[in-house]
Amino acid sequence: GAGRAQEAALSADDFKLLDTFEGHELTKSDRLFAAKDYRSAGAAYEAFLIQYPKSKATAYAVLRKGRCLHLGNKRFEAIKAYTEVLDYFPNAINYAGAALYYIGACHSENGNLEDAIPMADKEAARRGFITVAKTIPMGSTQLWTRVNSLDSPWFLDDMIEIVTKAGDKFDVIMIPKVEGPEDIHYVDRLLAQLEARAGLKKPILLHAILETARGVANVEEICGASPRMQGISLGPADLAANRRMKTTRVGGGHPDYIVRQDPTGDDYQGARATYQQDLWHYTMARMVDACVMHGVLPFYGPFGDIKDVVACEDQFRNAYLLGCVGAWSLHPVQIDIAKKVFSPRPQDVAQAQRVIDAMGDGTGAIMLDGKMEDDASVKQCKVVVELARQLAARDPHLAGLYGF
Length: 404
Ligand code: GLV
Ligand code: MG
What we know:
Blueprint: H1 12-16, H2 20-34, H3 38-51, H4 58-71, H5 75-88, H6 93-106, H7 122-135, E1 144-146, H8 155-166, E2 172-175, H9 181-198, E3 205-210, H10 213-217, H11 219-223, E4 229-234, H12 236-243, E5 258-260, E6 274-276, H13 281-294, E7 297-300, H14 309-322, E8 326-327, H15 332-341, H16 346-358, E9 365-368, E10 371-374, H17 375-394, H18 396-402
Parallel strand pairs: 1-2, 2-3, 3-4, 4-7, 7-8
Antiparallel strand pairs: 5-6, 9-10
Helix pairs in contact: 2-3, 3-4, 4-5, 4-6, 5-6, 7-8, 8-9, 14-15, 16-17, 17-18
The structure holds glyoxylic acid and magnesium ion.
Magnesium ion binds next to helix 12.
């Protein structure tokens, strides 16, 4: 729907780039928006855009103009404003990501066709995705779609429609509830036939969502089932249900999943510290190993508690530390979290570079700040620096932070 509890906001970094008058005008507009006076707020953002055509906050103001139209039920005009954000500011990833998300909301869909799309809207969602894929220029950003599962009545038409009508406009198809390599073999063959029919030149890639116990048990074979395999995501909601885990949360921890400190003597009832444990550790680690074995990218999936941005960040960071390259965003606030977590901190990149430099040709062992560094630690450091370089190549702001 159009209304959301949390809105994509101007980042503190971006606000610092504005001069006093701009900042003041924008704050005034934001206040009207916060007061839900969307008509006046829309006019205020519009006035801002006219008065400060070169502002560093243009992408944000256009996005907000779209929000005012959208929330005022002018969906068609809202889509135009969102599209403008994507067209002119594809690298302002926060605002462009939010714009894409809101376009999805306008069409009552986004790239997702599976769960979260009501049964009655399945076909509209499919049509909406095809329209978005064909009309929105994505620049260097990939477009993915999640089709319905193989055991659903929509899967076959999802594939036929999206591949033959927009197969050259998106990169990755996410297959939910993959159980074993046979699922991927089937989709691989079907895709080959549809790609041939559509005359496509570039193969469409596959991303399997790990959300059944059988899928987890077969994850190595799933990763190796086709050269199209691009990635795997952990789907904690369906997986919990399928395994009969007793959490009703979408990802994250659970206060009852703990270890407890030993008692003092026989005082079993006395105060004893407890430590919450990670419900997803085993699955995540197993998924990462299977992915690395086959050169496939591991992702953490959804985190359902949109308000709990702190725990979301923890969940994402655990995934990052264990080797995942990204996570899903269910809401624009989670895009910021993912960007922050999955880009190494500048001080970590600098320290990694320091070790690499100090190690010369990379062999042997040295002491640096009282720590032993050798061939293996150089490799660890290279993981961090190489990731930073890849990210910096797409993001000038990050390149600046890393000093590349
Ligand atoms: C994702 O689809 C999940 O089930 O967690
Ligand atoms: Mg699911």
